[in-house]
Amino acid sequence: MLEKLMSIDRRIIFILVALAVILPTLIPVSMPISVSEPTQKLYDYIETIPAGGTIMLVFDYGPASLAELNPMARAIMKQCFAKDIRVIGLTLYAVGTTMGSTLIQEVVEETGAVDGEDYVFLGFRPGLELVILGMGTDITSIFDRDYNGKPLSEIPMMQNVTNYDQVDLLVDLSAGSLTEAWITYANVQFNLQIAAGVTGVIISQMYPYLQTGQLVGLIPGIAGAAEYERLIEAPAKGTLWINIESFVHLLIIGLVVIGNIAFFIQRRREE
Amino acid sequence: MSKTIQCVVVCLVLCVSLAFSQGLSPPSNVTAMDTPNDDGSSVTIKWDAAPEDSGISGYQILRRIAGGGLEEIGEMLPAGATSYVDATIEKGNAYAYIVRAVSGTEATVDSNETAPAKGTGEWFHTGKIPLFVAMIVFSIAVMVSIYHARSGQEVFIRRIPGLEAVNEAIGRATEMGRSILYVLGLGGVSGAATIASMNILGQVARRTADYETPLHVPCNDPIVMNVVREMVKAAYLNEGRPDAYNEENIFFLTDSQFAYAAGVDGIMLREKPAAIFLQGTFYAESLILAETGNSIGAIQIAGTDSEHQLPFLITACDYTLIGEELYTASAYLSKEPMLLGSIRGQDWGKMIIFAAIVLGVILELAGISWITTLLQRVS
Amino acid sequence: MRRQVPLILCFVFGIVMIFTQFIPHSLSQSLHQEVRQWYLIIFPFALVFSSIALIRTHVMRIRRRTEHWRYSFLIFIGILMMVVIGVPFGPQHHVFEWLFNNVQVPMDATMFSLLAFFIASAAYRAFRARTLEASLLLVTALIVMLGNVPVGDLVWNTVFAWLPWENATSGMKQWILDNPNLSARRGIILGISLGVISQSIRIILGIERSYLGGGD
Q1: Do C182 and A207 touch (CB under 8 A)?
Q2: Is residue B4 part of a domain?
Q3: I need a labelling partner for C204 at 20 to 30 A (CA). Which of A222, B379, C80, C132 fits?
Q4: pLDDT tens-digit map of B52-78
Q5: Same domain for B311 and B174?
Q6: Which 193-222 residues of chain B touch chain C by CB within 8 A?
Q7: What beta strand segments (E) does C9-152 contain?
Q8: B379 contacts in A (CB within 8 Å)?
Q9: More reliable by pLDDT, B14 or C147
């Protein structure tokens, strides 16, 4: 029995994890969410941007990370549109193009934001740091048209935006190392203020930049997305999913505790 | 009569603007100069901060090209601004500037015009002097250590179990008659971890060439695939076994992160390699790969500089090279004195940083912050 | 000669690229940009070679009727479908978008979600309090796991309501991330950075030649 508890078949663990996800999805529960400091910092920073200001929202992620990063993007866009802050969407990751355009359309349908006045989606250009550096001098040298092919010179909200000097903040939503590229090239070389929203597995990678002030704020994983939804008072998928995640965490903790109890009993007996 | 009316109108306008601009003093000490440490594409304008009760609500910068008229540049700056970088200049032209203070009632008052300034590209970035010195010191430490190692001085290098296990893993695969799977991660060819991984692969390939053990390398990056093909081929040639080299075993899978993970998992489950090397840059797919490898009972040696993935790899793999161990692997495996010497140089660099940290902490505690200030000034 | 040319090129470009970091002059910066653009130009060519290699591998598989050879047809169907729609009509085309949203999105999301299952099984296997260090790791992991989800604070605020600290689980998690985690990471990052510099010096000076297949 003890042996069995110490080495539960991984397939049983997989079934338990599946149940821990499916059951709370069918019977949703609600738990109070406390806001962490990095999320609060980003929210506060955007709140200080005056109406008519501009932020860049970078969709540096693919479909695999949409569960964590889409709720963040949605919440940030809602906050910006409510405050009359303009949003320039773009991506350095080819697959991010469809992610960004689809999500923006969804938010636009909810908020009634106007293309070219409240937001513009520039799409994707290859070249990573070349794109970042190029936009620091002149955005039109990299993106002369938006995703729909309209020249930037004909887009009203881009009339006074030449480079990063006219951008109040860049929020990079990333599942990899692209946030570091934005910090290295846009923050260090052009002094552009940068914040990030990242997936759970790379949260700890971002903390050094948060402490040095190179990131003005950080949305950490789905927990951060739920916190942001609480801050803008619009609970959505982030809130639902963090509650589900609670059950999976409890299951893992339970498994670890069971394994350790069995381990201790066995060690006592051996002694 | 008309002249009298004109005079009255001009006087009235002057009186009105005076009344509006009453108390609004022009920005003082306005200077324009070439922006230091840039490529010559900008001019920096500076002025003194206005007192709090000045009534200024913002500043507008005006620019004049020699012999031309004044033009407004950029958007209105906030009241607290004391400098502006004009990055819209044309190289070679001299520009003079005026800073216009604007009050809440939209009354304006202009500063004196600055002397003309040109943008000039600098040949050395003075803000990077500490960085340059650090680079020179560290390079010298590495090169001196290499020189000493070359002259026959023995270099001690601590035992790294993950690297000791490389030969064991290859031997085991050979004995079992199964293949070796080498995963280079998701990094591009310019990534330091990918290069380090390729260096290890070079060593592994020499041994698999000797033992005639099949070596499979699924690649995520097209350039990496082409480079790896060339280097593995060269390794087999150097070992005198060109016939054992099979180009088809080094192939491009996909550049999509999770499709790549699915593909590699599929290879693991079908081929059941006896040894798996996970060396390079990894993201969220690391645990998916390592757990699948674990489930088929392969001996797994991982190594990454993606420190956020280390917990996953340590949990699921038999051996894990942590951070810098990945970069010492090539020297450790080849035992070449010159490569080993560079590792000693690396340790000297670490000692210098360690000493700077300790000294910095002591000085900070004593209220002296010049090390912190120096480091903060590095551009 | 076959060895010397790449080594000389490596040395020259290595040194030039280092110095462009310290020379802000436009000549130096345009040289830096130029070299980076060469990389961009190389990429599509390499992609073509790799795609040819991929197609050849699967053609061989079909020809030799190796195990699971029928799946190779799926590769060709996938490539053809996306190329036929994507190249002439672009990614904005509704069929391309439909395929992306209904094929690639669920497949990628499925692969990523496997992580939850694997984390559970790996954590169960690895977190055993065998030694003092392992016990510390275990306790830290439990606190971070609890602090990362709302249930952690809920449990704390209910069970320890009599204590003056509200939301202490997430507070402890934040402290762990901000302090022990950050200092350990900085140490590892310093080591990695020195390792990268040392490796770069070895490659630039031509001492490290493993990437050329070893030998002299």
Answers
A1: yes
A2: no
A3: B379
A4: 677 788 899 999 987 788 898 877 888
A5: yes
A6: 195-196, 198-203, 205-206, 219, 222
A7: none
A8: 188
A9: C147
User: What residues of chain C, 64 to 103, have a C-beta less than 8 Å from chain A?
Assistant: 91-92, 97, 100-101
pLDDT digits (tens, 9 = 90+) for A91-143: 998 889 988 999 999 999 999 999 999 999 999 988 888 899 889 888 998 99
* Spatial CA neighbour of B230 closest among B254, B207, B257, B198: B198
Residues of A within 8 A of C186 (CB-CB) are 208
Report how far apart the first and last C-alpha atoms of chain C are (Å, whole number).
11
Average pLDDT, chain A: 92
Cβ contact (<8 Å) for B122 and C25?
A: yes
Tokens for B294, please give them: 């674990």
- The beta-carbon neighbor of A66 closest among C43, C109, C174 is C109
B16 found inside a domain:
no
The tens digit of pLDDT for each residue in A206-239 reads 888 998 899 999 999 999 999 999 999 999 999 9
Question: C121 vs A34: CB contact, 8 Å cut-off?
Answer: no
| Mean pLDDT score of chain B | 87
Q: Is the pLDDT of residue B8 over 90?
A: no
- In chain B, positions 249-308, which contact chain A (CB-CB < 8 Å)? 256-258, 281, 283-284, 295, 306-308
In a domain, A121, yes or no: yes
pLDDT greater at residue A7 or residue B45? B45
Q: Between helices A66-82 and A37-48, what is the axis angle to 10°?
A: 30
Tell whether C202 is within 8 A of chain B (Cβ).
Answer: yes
DSSP letters spanning A59-114: EE--GGGHHHHHHHHHHHHHHHHHTT-EEEEEESSTTHHHHHHHHHHHHHHHH---
Flag whether B5 is in a domain: no
Q: Is C87 on the interface with B (CB under 8 A)?
A: no
Q: Half-sphere exposure of B73 toward its Cβ, with a 13 Å CA cutoff?
A: 23
Phi then psi for residue A209, to 5 deg, are -75, -30
Enclosing domain of residue B355: 126-141+340-377
Domain that holds residue A123: 37-235
ipTM for the assembly = 0.84
Q: Is the minimum CB–CB distance between C124 and chain B shorter than 8 Å?
A: no
| Residue A13 with chain C: CB contacts under 8 Å | 117, 120-121, 124
What's the structural domain count of chain A? Answer: 2
Q: How far is CA B250 from CA A147, B220, B230, C9, in A?
A: 37, 11, 10, 26
Contact C72, C61 (CB under 8 A): yes
Are A239 and A226 spatial neighbours (Cβ–Cβ below 8 Å)?
A: yes
Q: Which residues of C touch A98 (CB under 8 A)?
A: 91, 97, 100-101
B84 and B205 in a single domain? The answer is: no
B23-31 average pLDDT score? 84
pLDDT 10s digits, A58-96: 999 988 889 999 999 999 999 999 999 999 999 998 889
